[in-house]
Write a sequence for this structure.
């Protein structure tokens, strides 16, 4: 029997017709970076042997590609999304333990009151430090001593971030920060921690909050992030010692970061303090572990085509008696707006019990007390 459209259908059609004039066309952009080169590291293992390689993790910037888009909805509102995949240029393999969109995968709404987004996305750490961390997520950088800083992203998260004049505020909340398969992790040293457990809402939770000011001559910000333990999780202090169990939802790992920067013509200066505190519920680890990382950075635009930047940093872990000092020097020459070549070096001095590594390019942990030197020449193309 032939059926009529019905009153409900007419109402829906009229409502849809009313919305159509608001849609102004969707914009989708393909973007990415391909960055690789050749690296030399001495004391790349406990035996003190060296290695020459194409690094797997990063060069000057991590290699990646993705899609981002928006669709105007009217009255200052837009639908927005980003899908971003990490890639190892040397082998063609996906980064983030093989995830197709391991760097970012989120959808949301942009409004005059900020952006509200849902999915796998960065915590507020990235948005707070990006103007003060002048060397960035490079091979020999602040993240050599704490790799989580450059990978501060979480699964199953809701985030809000708004810019109001020179001020930016934001917060994020994850119901289960790392849904990697058992034995793997997409955030260095954390272990898989999927959360979303019935009766234990705190397991694998992650939240962060930030406030930032950035003006014409400089600025700064503060951000706090806390991660909770859960089944399968571990804690790595990145000092060569074995990771510690982090399986109880009462365990938590917190980072408080203060960042500042200023500009004098072609010279930019940045400074950061990262205070990390890990608290365990096990009595044997009462008091937890606290680390303090101090970073000073500088960048100078010598010519429109040549930029030189540098870094010096100090890591102190008193409870485990591990310390390190590190220096970095890098020069980047821009062949065009999108293509550049670079050379960079890093020097790291470990304390007697320390085994931090100078490089973010992949596993190269020295023996305890060994110093380390790394250098790399590479090429980057942005699209």
């Amino acid at each position: 029997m032939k059926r009529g459209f019905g009153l409900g259908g007419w109402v829906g059609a009229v409502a849809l017709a009313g919305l159509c004039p608001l849609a102004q066309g969707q914009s989708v952009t393909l973007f990415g970076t391909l960055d690789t080169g050749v690296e030399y590291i001495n004391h790349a293992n406990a035996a003190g042997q060296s290695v020459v390689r194409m690094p797997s993790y990063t060069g000057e910037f991590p290699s990646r590609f993705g899609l981002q888009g928006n669709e105007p909805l009217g009255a200052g509102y837009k639908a927005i999304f980003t899908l971003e995949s990490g890639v190892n240029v040397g082998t063609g393999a996906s980064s983030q333990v093989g995830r197709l969109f391991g760097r970012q995968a989120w959808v949301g709404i942009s409004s005059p009151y900020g952006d509200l987004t849902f999915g796998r996305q960065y915590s507020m750490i990235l948005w707070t430090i990006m103007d003060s961390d002048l060397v960035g997520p490079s091979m020999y950088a602040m993240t050599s001593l704490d790799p989580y800083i450059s990978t501060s992203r979480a699964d199953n998260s809701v985030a809000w971030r708004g810019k109001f004049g020179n001020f930016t505020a934001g917060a994020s909340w994850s119901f289960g920060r790392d849904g990697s398969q058992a034995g793997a992790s997409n955030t260095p040293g954390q272990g898989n921690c999927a959360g979303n457990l019935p009766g234990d809402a705190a397991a694998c939770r992650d939240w962060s909050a930030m406030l930032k000011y950035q003006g014409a001559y400089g600025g700064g910000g503060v951000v706090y992030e806390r991660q909770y333990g859960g089944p399968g999780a571990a804690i790595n202090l990145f000092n060569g010692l074995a990771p510690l169990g982090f399986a109880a939802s009462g365990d938590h790992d917190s980072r408080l970061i203060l960042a500042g920067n200023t500009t004098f013509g072609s010279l930019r200066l940045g400074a950061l303090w990262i205070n990390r505190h890990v608290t365990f519920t096990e009595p044997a680890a009462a008091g937890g572990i606290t680390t303090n990382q101090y970073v000073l950075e500088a960048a100078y635009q010598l010519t429109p085509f040549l930029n030189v930047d540098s870094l010096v940093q100090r890591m102190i872990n008193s409870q485990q008696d591990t310390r390190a000092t590190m220096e970095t020097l890098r020069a980047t020459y821009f062949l065009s707006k999108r293509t550049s070549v670079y050379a960079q070096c890093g020097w790291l001095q470990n304390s007697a019990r320390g085994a931090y590594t100078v490089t973010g390019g992949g596993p190269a942990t020295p023996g305890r007390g060994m110093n380390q030197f790394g250098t790399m020449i590479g090429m980057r193309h942005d699209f």
